[in-house]
Design a protein that fits this description.
Low-confidence stretches: none
Bound molecules: heme C
Shape: globular
Helix content: 40-55%
Structural class: alpha+beta
Length: about 200
Amino acid sequence: MRRSIVSGLCCTTVLLVGALSISARPPGSIPVVGEPADRELARLLVNLELRTRGALAKRYVAADAAHRAWLAHELLLPAAVADEVFHEVVPEATGGRAWVKMIVDEPRNRHNIGDDTTVALLGEIKSGKTQVSRTTAGAYYYGEPIKAASTCLACHGEPRGARDPFFPKYTKNGWKAGEIVGAVIARVAPHATGG
Ligand code: HEC
């Protein structure tokens, strides 16, 4: 159990870093916002973020009490791992050109605070779109809905406002299975842009 989770995480990270290095830009080329390779990269990042969090939530919920305690102790949880992998690995592996965030109305984690464009794209997702994108002067953005699965509800489900049993500093969100709760949005810029 432990080994399969850890090796799964290692595989995810190796794949992620590998995929991101393939997208490295040849030296000397003139970068433009929203080049095909950057669009591909944005789609890949959104997919990886959704699947990594989903896979970890599934394992967490399937584990027995002892393993759950171990997972929580080691912070092998959907949020904690995805946060580290995506908040740190993605910008580092792309030389500061890209990030991917889980955009919701009331973020628990400040790393998920977006910008004006992500707020606008979240609005489009809430109005029913399944894929959204935008090209601004500085970057290409791509996003897809986050759908709550039953495996998410232990921490994010009902009743809204009750204490999260695993992260008591947070409260539950009141999400229901199948509900669209936010948008995963990737931003890819031709140059390092930080934040
Ligand atoms: C074991 C508890 C737990 C489970 C299970 C869990 N989450 Fe979370 N989730 C958290 C915590 C804690 C945070 C905020 C802290 C962080 O990101 O480090 C978070 C953050 C988020 C965020 C980012 C928005 C914010 O508030 O910062 C989204 C979106 C999210 N989770 C979606 C999901 C989805 C979808 C699932 C199921 C596939 C899921 N979570 C399963 C605990 C959990």
